[in-house]
Design a protein that fits this description.
Blueprint: E1 16-17, E2 19-25, H1 30-40, E3 48-55, E4 59-66, H2 69-72, H3 76-79, E5 86-92, E6 110-114, E7 117-127, H4 130-139, H5 150-159, H6 165-174, E8 178-185, E9 189-194, E10 203-207, E11 210-214, H7 217-222, E12 226-230, E13 236-240, E14 244-248, E15 258-259, H8 261-266, E16 272-273, E17 276-277, H9 278-292, E18 299-302, H10 308-318, E19 326-328, H11 332-335, H12 341-346, E20 352-354, H13 356-359, E21 363-368, H14 375-386, E22 391-396, E23 409-410, H15 418-421, H16 424-431, E24 435-438, H17 441-447, E25 461-462, H18 464-467, H19 475-479
Parallel strand pairs: 15-25, 18-21, 21-22, 22-24
Antiparallel strand pairs: 1-23, 2-5, 2-11, 3-4, 3-5, 6-7, 7-8, 8-9, 9-13, 10-11, 10-12, 13-14, 16-17, 19-20
Helix pairs in contact: 5-6, 9-10, 9-17
The structure holds iron/sulfur cluster.
Iron/sulfur cluster binds at residues 199, 259-261, 405, 407, 409, 462-465.
């Protein structure tokens, strides 16, 4: 039986990032560095991981495994099978079409053999016209092995008439719509590409004489690589040991629309996004929240762990003491690989516990990063009241999540999102708390450094899960009946 991490049995009320990518060229035993990078990116996907490496003497080699990086790609017997100075890796949550039903053949990177040599490719994001492309390609004779979007890119590359792999990749990616940060490799080149709007992150680093690509800067830090720069929206970097980094812009220029939720929740707080510390942005969200929605209370408590920086900011701005009123059991996820129904019913109590001595008779402000279905928020509120709190006030570090993400984040269907079916007041009643306030979209934009807030005519970020304004029309979903927000 396949052993893999639990599909978040106690943490199913959060949006989930679906993937992280990493690549290294010009460093001996590159796969070992890739494994470490994937470990640093594990928060972006825990379901499975894969590594491809290339060595001139042994050719391409690959390994794909279900489960955590640390449980698989730390074994010398496996890593010895991945020799060479060029390697890419991928951590995966799951893609839209195969949630909970992933086969090992769906685990990236994917490999294609072309007349000019092999290439492996992995991506973070979601191709919003993948169904349409797949149908077209199958109609023209392509045989798909997996349910992953990345395979579409391989088949499109196979059909290109260009004579080298980077050019074939450009041809293929010009047909693709949606959000994607791609890391790919040939026998001699490491390639990184961001979609024209740069929705998902990708950074370039230097490790000795070698080069590194990573979804986040925390992946560079773990291997001691120096941050060089972000791969720009719409940019393709082709890196070789001989020629260093070459930069191309294969797409029509577009207004950048980086995912604003990366700042709120997905990225690690020790990463740097767009030149800004993620931790500092989250702290600033708390400052903005305290300015927008003050309330008299005795304590500001984070919902751990992702609510912590915003709670610190709220406390600093309001002058209300910060306290760890809820403590997280860090080992929960690994203890119960397959929880029984009885244990499952204990739900959030297995993961979070209230610090009763601190909470009793206090008016408590709970700061959380988001409300998705609202199920966890309700349970946390009950725990706080059971511990004797006098009042419970929720302050949420993102605007109401009222729309699904189609750009590489696992979101419930729209009717399962609490904010899609209820007003803020109705949500407050539903959660039965003394008050509930979300940061405004303008407040969130101020916290990420846009001092004038959101430019309504030309938003600076993707914020579709809050605004319903999708920067790239989700073509496949529209074909399946998804209704876009009506024009105002
Ligand atoms: S819809 Fe939301 S989660 Fe998805 S890319 Fe846009 S901001 Fe990020």
């Amino acid at each position: 039986m396949r052993e893999m991490p639990p599909s978040h049995p106690f943490d199913d009320d959060k949006l989930k990032e679906e993937c992280g990518v990493f690549g290294v060229i010009g460093v001996a035993d590159a796969a070992n560095f890739v494994a470490l990078g994937m470990h640093a990116l594990q928060h972006r996907g825990q379901e499975a991981g894969g590594i491809v490496a290339h060595d001139p003497a042994f050719g391409f080699s690959s390994a794909r495994r279900f489960g955590y990086v640390r449980d698989n790609f730390t074994k010398a017997s496996l890593m010895e099978t991945l020799p060479g100075a060029l390697s890419i890796g991928h951590v995966r949550y799951s893609t839209a079409g195969s949630k909970g039903n992933t086969q090992i053949r769906d685990v990236q990177p994917f490999f294609g053999e072309f007349s000019m040599g092999g290439a492996a490719i992995a991506h973070n994001g979601n191709i919003t016209n993948a169904d349409a492309l797949r149908k077209e390609l199958i109609g023209r004779g392509s045989i798909f092995q997996s349910s992953s979007d990345s395979e579409c890119i391989i088949h499109l590359m196979a059909r290109s008439l260009q004579t080298n792999i980077p050019e074939r990749m450009k041809d293929a990616l010009r047909r693709v719509e949606g959000a994607f940060s791609v890391v790919a490799m040939t026998r001699t080149k490491l390639i990184g590409v961001r979609d024209p709007m740069g929705v998902r992150p990708l950074v370039l680093g230097r490790l000795g004489q070698g080069w590194v690509l990573s979804s986040e800067t925390c992946g560079l830090d773990i291997i001691g690589a120096e941050f060089v720069r972000e791969v720009a929206p719409g940019e393709m970097v082709v890196i070789s040991e001989k020629e260093g980094v070459q930069s191309f812009h294969p797409f029509e220029r577009a207004q950048p629309r980086f995912c604003i939720f990366e700042h709120v929740y997905f990225s690690r707080p020790d990463s740097i996004l767009g030149g800004r510390s993620v931790y500092e942005t989250r702290r600033q969200i708390g400052v903005e929240l305290a300015k927008e929605s003050p309330v008299e209370a005795d304590l500001v408590c984070p919902v751990p762990d992702s609510g912590t920086p915003a709670a610190i900011g709220f406390s600093q701005q309001s002058g209300i003491p910060f306290a760890m009123g809820i403590v997280r059991n860090q080992y929960m996820g690994r203890t119960f690989i397959e929880p029984t129904e009885q244990i499952r019913n204990m739900g959030v109590r297995l993961k979070l516990n209230v610090n009763r001595a601190l909470i009793k008779d206090k008016r408590v402000i709970l700061v959380d990063d988001s409300v998705v279905r609202g199920t966890t928020s309700r349970k946390i509120k009950e725990m706080i009241l059971d511990a004797g709190a006098a009042e419970v006030h929720f302050r949420i570090a993102s605007p109401p999540t009222a729309w699904p993400c189609f750009y590489g984040v696992d979101t419930p269907q729209r009717d399962k999102l609490l904010a899609a079916t209820m007003s803020e007041e109705e949500m407050r009643d539903h959660l039965a708390v003394d008050s509930l306030k979300f940061i405004s979209l303008d407040g969130l934009y101020r916290a990420v450094g846009e001092t004038k807030g959101r430019n309504a005519a030309c938003p600076q970020y993707c914020d579709a899960c809050f605004s319903g304004e999708y920067p790239v029309a989700p073509r496949d979903m529209i074909a399946k009946g998804f209704e876009l927000k009506a024009a105002e």
